[in-house]
Amino acid sequence: MKNKREKGSRKRILLTSVFGPYGVDDAYGRKENIMELYHNQVTKAQGIASLRFHHRSFGLYFIASNVDADVTVLDFPSKARFVREIKKQYDIVGVSFIVPNFLKAKEMARLTRVHAAGSTILLGGHGAAIEGVKDLIDCDHVVQGEGIRWLRTYLGQDPNAPIVHPVLPSTERQSIFGAPVPGTCASMLVTGVGCVNACSFCCTSHFFGRKYTSFISSGRELFETAQRIADARGTDNFFVMDENFLKDKQRALDLIAEMEREKRFFGFHIFSSAEALTAFGIDNLVRLGAQFVWIGFESRSHQERFVKNKGIDAKQLVKDLRDRGISVLASGILCMEHHTPDNMQEDIDFLVDLNADMVQFMLLTPMPVTALYEEHKARKTFREDVAWEDTHGQKCLNYTHPAFADGEPEKWLNAAFRQDFEVNSSSLYRIVETCFRGYKALCAAPELDTCLETRKAELAQRTKEYGMVLPVIAKYAVNDKERHRARALDEEIAAHLGPPTVKERASRVALSLLAGLWKQRVRLFGDMIQPATIVTKFSPEERMRSELSAPILGTGASIIEDIAPSKAVAAMVGTDRST
Ligand code: B12
Ligand code: SF4
Hints:
Blueprint: E1 12-16, H1 38-41, E2 52-54, H2 58-65, E3 70-75, H3 79-86, E4 92-96, H4 102-115, E5 120-124, H5 133-136, E6 141-142, H6 147-154, E7 173-176, E8 179-180, E9 187-189, E10 192-193, H7 203-207, E11 213-214, H8 219-233, E12 237-240, H9 249-262, E13 267-271, H10 274-280, H11 282-288, E14 290-298, H12 314-323, E15 327-334, H13 344-353, E16 358-363, H14 371-379, H15 408-424, H16 427-444, H17 450-467, H18 470-475, H19 480-497, H20 502-525, E17 533-538, H21 540-548, E18 557-563, H22 567-572
Parallel strand pairs: 1-3, 1-4, 4-5, 5-6, 9-12, 12-13, 13-14, 14-15, 15-16
Antiparallel strand pairs: 2-7, 3-17, 7-8, 10-11, 17-18
Helix pairs in contact: 3-4, 8-9, 13-15, 16-17
The chain binds cobalamin and iron/sulfur cluster.
Iron/sulfur cluster (SF4) binds near residues 199 and 243.
């Protein structure tokens, strides 16, 4: 029998991410599947120079901010913490999961049936794309695609009511060389979900129906949302979670116009495909305040498969972006169907030779709902012995590849990451270099308007701030090349922007000490960092009040708990040693 409250009065809803610990070999997950973006699949081979950031389960906060209900968001719980929460007998328990976390979602549904038999169980997120998931997991509803409109409809509310953007930090915990990154991190801006390009392997495009669903549709609305969030959090920088932000060129151009009209210049980290970026133009990107762009170059040897990269000179594009102060994360795919041990190095060399600030190498992994998945299903190439928790693209292939024996893909992947690190130095070094290149480019420009003067000042500040890390990079360099170039860059920056102040020198010493401690920690206990559990309450009353006063999370939400993982757990799971 369902909880009586579900019909009639306002619902009590629990929205939760899957439980931790993450990135450990246990009954539910794998050590490669860590809950971090950079250290999982980008800077993982860069030892203590790897960027260490956690990110919340943003979709849950979006849904919570946009339904008329008492919603609790439970992010990164332990299994015991999850059980404690469901015993509060919510009307609805919604679990967000991705494909590799299938077993965790299944266990959470089972626990809900045991401890909260009256709760309705919803499953959402990319894991919902798994074929027949409704039969594989004992639940009430599986929600494929966009969840706000689905839940509003389910609760009898207007699915098309305006979408309220929550005020959220883009990262939960940022550290470099074991030292917390000072200052307020960028805010999260989710402008929409999905992408019309529909590249055959792409989960996000296919999951959202190969179309784009915008949450913020005009430049004006985007400016107002950014302004509200920036004022609440005290930073004008944003990480834009939109698979292809510049695909809507007019919206981004209108945003620039709004910023110039209002004389308020925000900064953005974005994802965009090469063709959309090129159409938008690099001058516009500088005016927009783009600081970082993630571009999927995928592969040079199979370009016909990726219309978005047709006719693009990838190397020139990366160089032009970095020359203008925009960091690039270039992503590529290994062990594609046409790859062999004889030709794959060519693609790895291509990606390394781009000399982007960061490179993501990922194994081709046909995922449910994608066209690629359907192709492999038709060809019956899927491996029966690869479980969902191994389907994450950082260790093994989930399909039979005639040219790569088991164990080989992981070796290629690790070697590719290492090659990029040794040839191009740490990503941190490259990011400082990019800021400085952009600053010098604006210094050399004949005339600057207010927008570009602001961008120049921002680049100077970022160069100084990020440049503080250069002595530590030199000290722990991967090779002589990195050591020499880090020292040379430090000197060149000092020559242009002045030597470090006393305070900056003190910070450099502190950073060096912390880096030494972090190195020891990694050597003795491994480099694992578990995210803290975060519990956030959303209620309509607070939501209404928040429209009148400065909100905590912008939508009437309050964080009630923020539990750091115990040292014992951190040490216990610290088995994944970096090089
Ligand atoms: C942020 C992010 C992360 C964060 C994790 C944040 C977290 N706390 O979980 C980090 C960086 C740590 C991460 C790690 C990984 N990720 Co990730 N990640 C993303 C990313 C870039 C954004 C997700 C997001 O916030 N989107 C915006 C929100 C609004 O959308 P949403 O989450 O999809 O939510 C909407 C719907 O899905 C739905 N919904 C979601 N949950 C629920 C729950 C209920 C109850 C309901 C009703 C609806 C619903 O409603 C929401 C609003 O419309 C996506 C790619 C993308 N652009 O979506 C990949 C993505 C989700 N990640 C993916 C993967 C595979 C991974 C990793 C395995 C690394 C890897 N190899 O790629 C690890 C796994 C970590 C782990 N142990 O679980 C895949 C999932 C593929 C799949 N089919 O399952 C994606 C799609 C990227 C990709 N490869 O295409 N990731
Ligand atoms: S361009 Fe990027 S986001 Fe769009 S479908 Fe292709 S891979 Fe996905």
